[in-house]
Amino acid sequence: MFLWFHKFGSAPHFYRIAGKWIPWLTALFLILLTTGLYGGLVLAPPDYQQGDSYRIIFIHVPAAWMSLLIYVLMAFCGVVIIVWRMKLAEVVLICSAPIGASFTFLALATGSIWGKPMWGTWWVWDARLTSELILLFLYLGVIGLHNAIDDKRIAARAVAILAIVGVVNIPIIHYSVEWWNSLHQGPTVTKFDKPSIHWSMLIPLLLMALAFQFYYALTLFQRCRGELLKRERNSKWVNELSEGNDV
Amino acid sequence: MSEFFAMGGYASYVWSSYGLTAIVLCLNWYLPRRTHQQILRQLKRRHSKQSSLDRKK
Amino acid sequence: MYNGWIFHCDLFDMKRYSLTQAFLFLLKRDLTLSFRNRAEFANPLLFFILVITLFPLAIGAEPALLSRIAPGIIWVAALLAAMLSLDSIFRSDFDDGSLEQLLLSAHPMPVLVLAKVAAHWLVTGLPLLLVSPVLAVMLGMPSEAQGTLLLTILIGTPILSLIGSIGVALTVGLPKGGIILSLLILPLYVPVLIFASSAIEGAAGGLDVSAQLYMLLSFLFLAVSLSPLATASALKMSMG
């Protein structure tokens, strides 16, 4: 077990394995994406309240889920970096950040676009939107801090600390804003008000969520491979790689 | 078919969301790939320069 | 400005001086240095006053409107003033090498960090506490809310100093750290802002706000116990 972990943490090994997996991950992603989209856009019936506009949900909710999941993963990598100084965790953390930020942006943008016909407004300061916006700033902070520090090993530890502190902050922000709104009796917090979601909508939703997870994995692997080459360009295994003809 | 594209009158909202998502996902797929290939090209160039220098010695 | 002369290496030798003595010494040293450099002391305060003054000028001095947004204005200004003043916690020590000395001492770094943050709060947060009632009156805040205002600033500004110190520790080694600092810290400040302004508004409306105050108090306890650890860790890492 320890041997597997140690081997997994080795850069050339990860580079090779990631390279092999990317095509499979891409295939799975595309399959899940097409079935999810077909189920959501074609098969699922229009909502009796929202008509066809509710179909944005099949992008919006999975994107929001990914934005949260990726940040938690980053915090987990942060712990691994601080405790074990594992180089691979450093690479995974910093490569996940732009992907997480993209999903957060998509969640906010698609939510806003969905909100316009539904609530009549592009934006409203309720708990979910506000805490999602702050999450975007947290991601940008991680990317910014990492860019600002030249020594990338030190940069990794800095963003590890930031990721850990930030993950504690996310539930705090969410609940404090929820509190804030209910105290102010602010604008009506519209919920997707159904007793439970119908399976014809649930299944495409879950398929899309799974598809996004595979997308995250394949883009993460792609980014990590590039980042590993950059970081280890003076090492032996990279030299041997540039000798060979296959990548 | 045209009914599908009309999305019950909400076409601009639904399709702009999906379109935006498609753009973001494609960029996130394409840009790292391009970076990776650029790095590989650079490394190969550097390596061949190095080995031609070694051969001259 | 060479601050190192105030350090005696053996002062941080555990065998000769206890942790409490080291804490108090560091606190006193930082306060002395701050009082010598008046700007460090006066600038955040003046900034606070100026920002608050800008609002009536920008929004128009309609009393009803001003008194409604007064809690928010005061707290946003406090937040910005805190961020402006944060750089001073570690900057001069970083520049002259005293920070490295501190890291080398035998005493646990989190406690020393707490001393520095305490000094920072006394110099930047406490003046805000003293000045805010005056500003609250100028903005037309009802008198029932002023007690709550003072309470939230008393509890909240130490939290700002503590959480801010994490951000400063992460960016102290960077040339243009100040800009990144704001981006890092503002998301962490948001809960304090929300509960504090909600408490004051509630009090202005005559509601019971003990819940918000307890939340703020719990944030304070969390910050006092955990942030020095994060700050110390970040400092060790920033110093390479």
Brief summary of the model shown:
The complex is a heterotrimer of chains A (247), B (57) and C (240). Chain A has 8 helices and no strands.
Can you tell me about this structure?
The complex is a heterotrimer of chains A (247), B (57) and C (240). Chain A has 247 residues and is mostly helical. Helix content of chain A is 80%, strand content 0%. Chain A has one domain. About 4% of the residues of chain A have low confidence. With 57 residues, chain B is an all-alpha fold. Chain B has one domain. Helix content of chain B is 89%, strand content 0%. With 240 residues, chain C is mostly helical. In chain C, α1 packs across α6 and α3 packs antiparallel against α8. Chain C starts with 18 loop residues before the first helix and ends with a helix. The N terminus of chain C is likely disordered. Chains A and B meet through α3, α4, α7 and α8 of A and α2 of B.
Give the N-to-C terminal Cα separation of chain C: 23 Å
Average predicted confidence as pLDDT of chain C = 86
Give the assembly state of these chains.
heterotrimer
Which regions of chain C are unreliable across 5 or more consecutive residues at pLDDT < 50?
A: 1-5
- Give the proportion of residues in helices of chain C: over 70%
Number of discrete domains of chain A? 1
What letter string, H or E per element, gives the SSE order of chain C? HHHHHHHHH
* Major sheet characteristics of chain A: none
Largest sheet of chain C: none
Number of helices of chain A: 8
Percent in strands of chain A: under 5%
List the total number of helices of chain C: 9
Strand content of chain C: under 5%
Task: Indicate how many domains the architecture of chain C comprises.
Answer: 1
